[in-house]
């Protein structure tokens, strides 16, 4: 009888969430029932086409710059991830998730480095409320030439001198909120993205306005402007917006309205 009541409660929650714009996948994640999911973001401008490896085998192949792969199911437990030149299983960079868990989303990023390539890892426990339709937002810093930044997501024409950063102190090769913590939640609407050196109110980047939809799942990654990495031009950055989903898609690239780059 208890099992029947539990099944009925889950079915009711799924139906209510769907009516509010969510889906049964969100219910499974929130309740820790759905298999863990993982996807890959290629954030190396001018980098090679790569394959995404999980525990030494190719999970997704032929991935080019700005591509965000679809979420794929993986097993629980300790998991090694890497990326390699297309057709190879020799890692260009690798990392490890020590305890992959049900209901979590995992993101692996190919990152630029001063020499070679690097890797970024995010464990998202997905603690979104069953009735919430808010957008989920997180930032990641992949810019060796802007290694500690604040990011503001604000309505157009906002004076940030009196506003706290939306995502503060995003340091190189780290996420905010940090890996292992839930994403930030925001209402859908029209925003601009403004980036400053951490603690400063002077913009080094400002996007044109864009729409953030309810129920969106955004990872905003700072990346060097193509060519800026080798020249080490300070603060020459773009923003890539990786959106989670069941289809492979290019990241949205936000360019700098301050420099027209």
TrEMBL record:
<keyword id="KW-0732">Signal</keyword>
<dbReference type="Pfam" id="PF14344">
    <property type="entry name" value="DUF4397"/>
</dbReference>
<feature type="domain" description="DUF4397">
    <location>
        <begin position="37"/>
        <end position="152"/>
    </location>
</feature>
<feature type="signal peptide">
    <location>
        <begin position="1"/>
        <end position="18"/>
    </location>
</feature>
<dbReference type="InterPro" id="IPR025510">
    <property type="entry name" value="DUF4397"/>
</dbReference>
<protein>
    <recommendedName>
        <fullName>DUF4397 domain-containing protein</fullName>
    </recommendedName>
</protein>
């Amino acid at each position: 009888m208890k099992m029947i009541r539990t099944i009925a409660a889950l079915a009711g929650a799924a139906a209510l969430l769907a009516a509010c714009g969510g889906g049964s996948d969100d219910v499974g994640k929130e309740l820790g029932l759905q298999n863990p999911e993982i996807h890959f973001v290629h954030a190396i401008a001018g980098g090679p086409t790569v394959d995404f490896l999980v525990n030494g085998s190719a999970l997704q192949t032929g991935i080019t710059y700005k591509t965000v792969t679809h979420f794929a199911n993986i097993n629980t437990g300790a998991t090694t991830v890497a990326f390699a030149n297309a057709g190879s299983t020799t890692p260009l960079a690798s990392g490890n998730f020590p305890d992959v868990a049900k209901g979590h989303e995992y993101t692996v990023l190919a990152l630029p480095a001063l020499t070679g390539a690097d890797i970024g890892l995010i464990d998202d426990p997905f603690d979104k409320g069953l009735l919430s339709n808010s957008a989920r937002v997180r930032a990641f810093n992949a810019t060796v030439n802007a290694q500690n930044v604040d990011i503001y997501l604000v309505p157009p024409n906002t004076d940030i001198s009196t506003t706290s950063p939306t995502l503060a102190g995003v340091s190189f090769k780290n996420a905010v909120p940090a890996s292992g913590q839930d994403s930030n939640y925001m209402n859908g609407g029209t925003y601009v993205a403004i980036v400053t050196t951490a603690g400063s109110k002077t913009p080094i980047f400002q996007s044109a306005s864009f729409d953030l939809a309810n129920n969106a799942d955004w990872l905003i990654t700072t990346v060097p402007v193509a060519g800026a990495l080798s020249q080490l031009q300070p603060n020459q950055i773009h923003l890539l917006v990786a959106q989670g989903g069941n289809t492979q898609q290019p990241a949205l690239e936000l360019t700098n309205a301050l420099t027209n780059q």
